[in-house]
Amino acid sequence: MKEASYKTRWTMLLIAYLGLISCFIPYVGYSTQVAAIMEDVGINYTQAGLLASVTALVGGIILPFTGGIVEKWGAKKIIIIGLIISAVSQVIFAYMPDYSSLVFSRALAGLGVGLLFVGPYTMAIKWFEDVGNNGVALGVMFTSDGIGTAFALYLFAIILSVMGWRTGSALGGIFLVIVLLLTIFILKEPPSFEKQKVNRSDTKLSFKEYVGVLKNRNVIVAIAFFVGEWGLYAVMAYWVPTLLIEDAGWSESLAGFLTSLYVLIGVVPSIIFGLISDRMGKRKIFVVIAGLWMTINVGLLTLAIYNGAYGLAAFIMPLIGIGVYTGMPVALALASESVDSKLVGIVNGFVLGIGFLVGGFTYPSIMGYIKDTTGAYTTGFVGLIIATLILTFLLALIGKDTNKTEVQQDESVVS
User: Fold this and answer.
1) Whether 252 contacts 157, CB under 8 Å
2) Comparing C-alpha atoms, which of 151, 369, 155, 378 is closest to residue 247?
């Protein structure tokens, strides 16, 4: 089989990257309009938090199953289905008249977003695993959080401000259709997938293999890290813009832009530390340091918000992002390299799915409830400090670096 050129690999990575970026419109694109939606529909903070949480709930439930489906159908089909569902949900969200209908549209968006998380990441790993560049490929893919969030919370926020949240949301659906067409006509499955189609029985996985994945210590480390970081992301992308608009009196576009810096700043460390970890052959140390850095800066952010120093809070948020996007690609690479190639999609599904479900669902819901009951966000941010310490730092200590050329499925915390 002829080896794919680097031009082909990077072209496929680019299209997968566009698919991943596009999902941020249905996921968090409306965040700067939460106050307007609350007033328009007549809902409270708890109900507004549910709009974000139900997306993460559905996405988190579907993600682990998507991992197995990707291995059978291929990542391209999953990305196409995800884009179709996301585009439909975006248009429905724009024209739903009441709260219950909005919740339905957000649940549908969760289905599409879930597919668009696993598909592109698996596509990236499959195209680069044979040349030992998973760290770089995943580093590039994780920059989509920064680019995607900046696009959704700043550029898209301008469209929503000018057009209104309903018309603007419909325009977001049109963008998703454009990405869908590019995916259909340009994106291809990696050669490894075509080779595996010759013997489809090799892709049938037993229950024991699923359990083995969940027992793997490095998979546990990655799951914990993603729960912590995804919870942080949900709060930063959803509630912080609302906080800056309502409490600090900042404009929607300014609040969205400054919030997006949390992930936009992660573009550089995501690639650099992914490359460094590839060269060193070490993953764990980067995850541990990232977790400690995140915990310290979440603590500083909480103090700033408590004292009403919103300018300082805006400065600290990107510092948290440095830790988050240093650790994310390395943690996922550590997990995916600890299992056989046929289980990579399963690992991605579990790591992204559980992180999305637990972090993305519980954090914004709890924060909204705390705001309703106490009138402030402070208690919720104190909880963020504790959760970040445990999930991203302490649990990272049980991880173990593996040899890329060896399958380490027996490296479980119970063995």
Assistant:
1) yes
2) 378
Rg (CA), the chain: 20
The pLDDT, as a whole number, for residue 411 is 45
How do residues 121-141 score in pLDDT, each as one tens digit?
Answer: 888 888 887 666 777 787 788
- State residue 415's pLDDT score: 40
Cα 358 versus chain centre, distance: 12
Closest residue by Cα to residue 169 from 160, 161, 178 = 160
pTM: 0.73
Rounded Cα distance between 64 and 213, Å, is: 11
**Do residues 218 and 334 make contact, with C-beta atoms less than 8 angstroms apart?**
yes
Cα–Cα distance for residue pair 62/176, rounded to 1 Å: 20
Mean pLDDT for 259-288 is 82
Q: Does the structure show a pLDDT above 70 at 407?
A: no
Question: How many helices and strands (H and E) does the chain possess?
Answer: 20, 0
- Cα separation, 241 vs 259, in Å, equals 6
